[in-house]
Amino acid sequence: MRICCIGAGYVGGPTMAVIALKCPDIEVAVVDISVPRIAAWNSDQLPIYEPGLDDVVKQCRGKNLFFSTDVEKHVREADIVFVSVNTPTKTRGLGAGKAADLTYWESAARMIAEVSKSDKIVVEKSTVPVKTAEAIEKILTHNSKGIKFQILSNPEFLAEGTAIQDLFNPDRVLIGGRETPEGNKAIQALKAVYAHWVPEERILTANLWSAELSKLAANAFLAQRISSVNAMSALCEATGADVTQVSYAVGKDTRIGPKFLNASVGFGGSCFQKDILNLVYICECNGLPEVAEYWKQVIKINDYQKNRFVNRVVASMFNTVSNKKIAILGFAFKKDTGDTRETPAIDVCKGLLGDKARLSIYDPQVTEDQVQRDLSMKKFDWDHPLHLQPMSPTTVKQVSCVWDAYEATKDAHGICILTEWDEFKQLDFKRIYDNMQKPAFVFDGRNIVNMEQLREIGFIVYSIGKPLDAWLKDMPAVA
């Protein structure tokens, strides 16, 4: 059997690498029109950072795992074609700001129909709005030249930073297809691939619409938990409660559980906001404005949390950060990934830059080019393929990137911790304090520092949802 995946990004690359590792009898090709991206997959410096990915790729590459820009050849030869292309949020036209833009999906479907000489199973792998499969099916059947296509939805449920472990040992694999004999046969063919390593009871099957909606629903539920605890964090600060203690007590209820209950500066990543906006749009289109409004609130609380954090920083530092050096520790949206898509750090940095702060940024996995790109790009532009993004983004002059936390914090007035990298917990804060302007502030957006120890050193510390320092008590949380 031959498998081809169109799209060599965060989903396609790791997923296909693990399939190749677990199914040595299957030839797997990952194709993409981006020459630099494919070159990186074929090099020692992979285009994405994910713990364990290097080892998997090196074990299979050149044996039964291939990365290529010859898209048409590999699609033509494949029995199963996974499509893992960008589905950005529309920025203009019908549904702007909410609906998904299916331009890349549609062109992929037309190309598959064009080059195919044999029957194929086409698998939706990227997050797509409900009913995409139906649209793709129409394109393929109207351009099929007598070739039969079966469309399956196989949404990914990976968490960045643990994607390889998630692929090795998934909670569930969901496969949606048509409830017809041909549809069932296609479902069984894909199921047989995953059955090489996933126990059968964890491979769930559903109809197409249920599979597509399950992905949006899962992400909306997870984001909702984060927004819920973040809403509580604001109340904790106002009342002197400790959000860590509150979330621990809540998480002990077995009906709720402890995951996704850590208060923070906000959620990020490529899926949560986009999928909820998509859900909102589908609800509106189906005449369900109350349901749409409910999910919209999850994003509003996330935006509120980021604004609240920026306002805390500015209010604490005598109501201005103009020309003050602020050290930003962490730019990726979470630890163990270099991914910056929708990272809260973008909004926090833009908020501080709006008050004319000078930023010194350190993240162990994010390059200066990426930081500058993110800070100068328009909203939603990040989700278009790299070659369609601005080539040389305008440099934000008040921003410098350094490769060491001590360099970032030297002579700084304040520190914002925006990613929970383990190394930030081990920093020598006495050394940092001695080299900072006084009073020295720490704004912990991830609740990873020991507040009492830092206060003993001399810092004024703000941790989200924790009892406020006397210094901060009279400062307004929201400007």
UniProtKB/TrEMBL annotation:
CC terms in the record's Gene Ontology section: nucleus
Q: What is the lineage of its organism?
A: Eukaryota, Viridiplantae, Streptophyta, Embryophyta, Tracheophyta
Q: Where is the active site?
A: 271
Q: Which GO terms describe its biological process?
A: glycosaminoglycan biosynthetic process; UDP-glucuronate biosynthetic process
Binding of NAD(+): at which residues? 7-12, 32, 37, 85-89, 126-127, 160, 271-274, 341
NCBIfam families assigned to the protein according to its UniProt record, in alphabetical order: NDP-sugDHase (TIGR03026)
Q: Could you tell me which species this protein originates from?
A: Hibiscus syriacus
Q: Which UniProt keywords are given for this protein, alphabetically ordered?
A: NAD, Oxidoreductase
The entry sums up its family as follows:
Belongs to the UDP-glucose/GDP-mannose dehydrogenase family.
Under catalytic activity, the entry for this protein gives: UDP-alpha-D-glucose + 2 NAD(+) + H2O = UDP-alpha-D-glucuronate + 2 NADH + 3 H(+)
Q: In which pathway does it act?
A: Nucleotide-sugar biosynthesis; UDP-alpha-D-glucuronate biosynthesis; UDP-alpha-D-glucuronate from UDP-alpha-D-glucose: step 1/1
SUPFAM superfamilies given in the database record: 6-phosphogluconate dehydrogenase C-terminal domain-like (SSF48179), NAD(P)-binding Rossmann-fold domains (SSF51735), UDP-glucose/GDP-mannose dehydrogenase C-terminal domain (SSF52413)
Q: Name one GO molecular function term.
A: UDP-glucose 6-dehydrogenase activity
Start and end residues of each UDP-glucose/GDP-mannose dehydrogenase C-terminal domain: 327-451
The EC number(s) given in the record are: 1.1.1.22
* Protein name according to UniProt: UDP-glucose 6-dehydrogenase
Asked if the keyword Oxidoreductase belongs to this entry, the reply reads yes
Give the matching InterPro entries. 6-PGluconate_DH-like_C_sf, NAD(P)-bd_dom_sf, UDP-Glc/GDP-Man, UDP-Glc/GDP-Man_DH_C, UDP-Glc/GDP-Man_DH_C_sf, UDP-Glc/GDP-Man_DH_dimer, UDP-Glc/GDP-Man_DH_N, UDPglc_DH_euk
What Pfam families does its record include? Answer: UDPG_MGDP_dh, UDPG_MGDP_dh_C, UDPG_MGDP_dh_N
